[in-house]
Amino acid sequence: MSAVALLLIGLGAFALGYLFYSRFIAGRIYRLDPEFRTPAHEQRDDIDYVPTNRFVLWGHHFTSVAGAAPIVGPAIAVIWGWGPAFVWVILGTIFIAGVHDLGAIWASVRNRAQSIGSLTGSLVGPRARTLFMIVIFLLLLMVNAVFAVVIARLFVGFPESVVPAWSAIIVALILGQLIRRRAIGLAWLSIFGVIALYGAIWLGQYVPIALPDTVAGLGANAQWIVILFTYAAIASLLPVWVLLQPRDYINGLQLFIGLGLVFVAVVIANPTVVAPAFNQNLPAGVPPLVPMLFVTIACGAISGFHGLVASGTTSKQLDREPDARFVGYFGAVGEGCLALAAIIACTAGFATLGEWEALYSTFAGGGLEAFVEGGATIMNAGYGLPIAVGTTLLAVMAVLFAATTMDTGIRLQRYIVQEWGNIHAIDWMTRKGPATALAVGCCLGLAFGAGGTDGTGGLIIWPLFGTTNQLLAALTLLVISLLVVKLGRPPWFTLIPMIGLILMTLTALLFQLVDFYQQENWFLLGLDLLILVAAVFVALETATALVRARKREAPA
Amino acid sequence: MRKAWRRFNELLEALYGTRHRRALLAVQRQHNDALMLMVYADALGIDNPMAHQVLELKILLADDFHDWHRRAGLDHSVLDCTRCC
Asked: Does residue B44 sit within a domain?
């Protein structure tokens, strides 16, 4: 199979999905109205509510939702062969993620830009809202733990990426200061920033940094995890403009550049996909494709996290209601493209099937390492970029995505802890320092609890992260479906994906429950049970809310 | 060409500001409130070593005073010197 063919089929399907399916959904189901006064105009305050150019808003939405997750998920899932991962990413993006993201913006815009959490409370009930908050907290907890493990593995596997990844912080700090002082135009600063970052990547190959094998009984992975959480705690306490904002911005630029570099290399080199379409030679311990594929690839096919961004900040800035189609649906397509790039890099970036199988010898064996090595090989074949530079470039790209998510994740968790402190009048929890320490402590506990003191097994919780993410997506689709039912329109286009997600999530959780029990991993068993209870409640709330909505509709 | 470059610059600035606008404005507001406190501290009965140096600012910041005392939770101004509402 030619990688270019795979790329063209994927991009072609996305284009058809955007041109036809999104038009149908926007026109017939959500009925986007150009005359509708959006909250950006109606409640304009120039703080949260600001009418924004749709291209800028798409850039904001896409860069906010895209990160390391749409790379990690497909990079693990291709172990079942490229076919299932490819089909799930394409169909998931077209029929679920696009409809979900667009729907979340529409639902929010039609309800004074309320977040999906608030809408869940008003449309489904207070119990569902509490459930929503619990799912969000679990999601943040897992994403921070998983990404710390992911970065640590990359630092150990690619020591050349250490210097450029930390240099990016210095570049961002300088950029933040210069932008604040308005020293020169942002276009020039962006160019200088990108040159500095890529210069550091080039330098990185000459100064690989490896930590000692053990320090105080902690292996290199574990040491990096501790360092990363220490950094994330400090970074989350800094004012937003100092580090987070310029870092997010540079990452956004890097996302476009990295995606372009991989796609151009695929087109020039046209490598052969060496991995099988369906892997018949699965290594021992690999879970069954159904249901695990659907929770291993969450971001890139459907992700509940998008609903938080769509109804949190995007909906408040929508200039015209029809813009939601471009911003929401095309934003999901953007993430689908990133997942597609990851699938191609992880399946076509190897010389032989044997080489591929050697890397994918365990379930989480491939992961980001496969993306980095495969992508670097393709870039080398495409335009001669030295392998060492290519691997460092892609490793740094993945590290920066994951690290920025960690910065934001810890900050959000601290906000939640502080809010709980306020609600329950616990003074110490309302203070920045202790709240951050508690948030980081929980994440560290999960990172080590999942994989032991060596910190290498954190990726075991990746499918659990997927299930939580899908649960959130199911809740968002429920809210959208209820609104659609209320308006007397056919709800099947959101309802069927929602039912599918809940079924897959429940099955995956039950499967993992048995697995963790057999492994006697009580920590993960407890976590699985917690998510399972949340999933069962989501299913029950869904059924109750839909029956109630149908009854209300019946007399009319 | 120059126009296109300016437009590109504007797009990048919009992209840069969009995501964290609220947090940045909150920080800016905190700074402004600290300045207001420094200027009006003596009128609130707080010993203000800077009182003499910030005297002229009282007139300049008078327009912002109403918003500030409302944010501080006071529906009406408690100062004799500044009766805004």
From this structure: yes
Q: Is B53 helix (H, G, I), strand (E, B) or coil?
A: coil
What are the two backbone dihedrals, phi and then psi, of residue A52, each rounded to the nearest 5 degrees?
A: -125, 140
Domain count, chain A: 1
Can you list the positions of beta strands (E) in A71-113?
A: none
Low-confidence ranges of chain A (pLDDT < 50): 556
A467 interfaces chain B, CB cutoff of 8 Å? no
- CA distance linking residue A227 with residue A216, whole number of Å: 14
Structure-model confidence comparison of residues A2 and B75, the more confident one: A2
Residues on chain A touching B9 (C-beta within 8 angstroms): 185-187
* B chain contacts of residue A182, beta-carbon cutoff 8 Å: none
How far apart, in whole angstroms, are the C-alpha atoms of residue A164 and residue A18?
A: 37
Indicate yes or no: CB of A60 within 8 angstroms of CB of B19. yes
CA dist., res. A391 & res. A467, Å (int): 30
Q: Is A2 helix (H, G, I), strand (E, B) or coil?
A: strand
Tell me the shortest Cα–Cα distance from A415 to chain B, in angstroms: 13
Q: Which pLDDT score, from 0 to 100, does residue A28 have? A: 95
Whether residue A515 lies within 8 A of chain B, CB to CB, comes out as no
Q: Is residue B74 a contact partner of residue B65, using CB atoms and an 8 Å limit?
A: no
Nearest chain A residue to B9 by CA: give it: A187
When CB atoms are compared, the residue of A56, A239, A240 closest to B18 is A56
Residue B81 lies inside a defined structural domain of this protein? no
Length of chain B: 85
Query: Which residue among B5, B14, B25 sits closest to A56, beta carbon to beta carbon?
Result: B14
How is residue A64 annotated by DSSP?
Answer: H
For residue A503, the surrounding DSSP H or E stretch is: helix A492-519
Residues in chain A: 556
Q: Tell me if B79 is assigned to some domain.
A: no
Phi-psi region of A125 (alpha: psi -120 to 50; beta: other; left: phi over 0): left
Count the domains in chain B: 1
Q: A130 vs A12, A303, A414, CA distance in Å?
A: 41, 20, 18
- The reported pLDDT for the residue numbered B80 is 62
> Rg (Cα) of chain A, in Å, rounded?
22
The residue of chain B with its CA nearest to that of A238 is B27
Residue B57, domain member (yes or no): yes
Cis status of the peptide bond prior to A208, with omega within 30 of 0:
no
Helices assigned H by DSSP within A110-241: 116-123, 126-157, 162-180, 186-204, 220-237
Q: Supply the pLDDT for residue A315.
A: 92
Angle at the Cα of A316 (from A108 to A16), degrees rounded to 5?
A: 65
Q: Is B4 exposed, middle or buried (0-12, 13-18, 19+ CB in 10 A)?
A: exposed
Model pLDDT, residue A457 = 53
Q: In the predicted model, is pLDDT for residue B18 greater than 80?
A: no
Q: A39: domain range?
A: 3-553
Residues in chain B closer than 8 A to A187 (CB atoms): 5, 8-9, 12
Provide the domain limits for residue B55. 2-71
Distance CA B41, CA B34 (A): 10
ipTM of the complex: 0.73
Give the best residue of B1, B7, B19, B32 to mutate against chain A (max A CB count within 10 A).
Answer: B19
Chain pair A-B, CB pairs under 8 angstroms: 56
Q: Which of B5, B12, B20 sits opposite A245 (nearest CB)?
A: B20
Q: What does the alpha-carbon distance between residue B67 and residue A46 come to, in Å, rounded to a whole number?
A: 16
- DSSP character string of A114-142: --HHHHHHHHT-HHHHHHHHHHHHHHHHH
